[in-house]
Amino acid sequence: MYKSTNKNFNCAFIESFRNKDGYLSGLMNKYILSELLGYDIDKNILRSEREYDRVLTANENILPFSLIE
Q1: At CB < 8 A and 24+ separation, what contacts does 57-61 make?
Q2: What sign results for the dihedral spanned by CA atoms 11, 16, 17, 20?
Q3: Is the dihedral of CA 14, 19, 24, 26 positive or negative?
Q4: What is the pLDDT of residues 22-67, one digit of tens each?
Q5: Bridge partner list, 54
Q6: Can you give the pTM of this predicted structure?
């Protein structure tokens, strides 16, 4: 849950962290919190992280989230 009275951090701010498939990955939490704390995150890093959402499987393989059924 997220609430702020700062107009710079509204729903559009959070929505900007969704990937191309519309998912909001838990992996993005560190970037969301970092920006809320005032850190500037390189947009290229954000873009690559947002579009490479991955999951560590039970057999220790790393797979893109889109391939998990």
Answers
A1: none
A2: positive
A3: negative
A4: 888 888 899 989 988 889 999 999 888 888 888 888 899 888 877 7
A5: 64
A6: 0.69
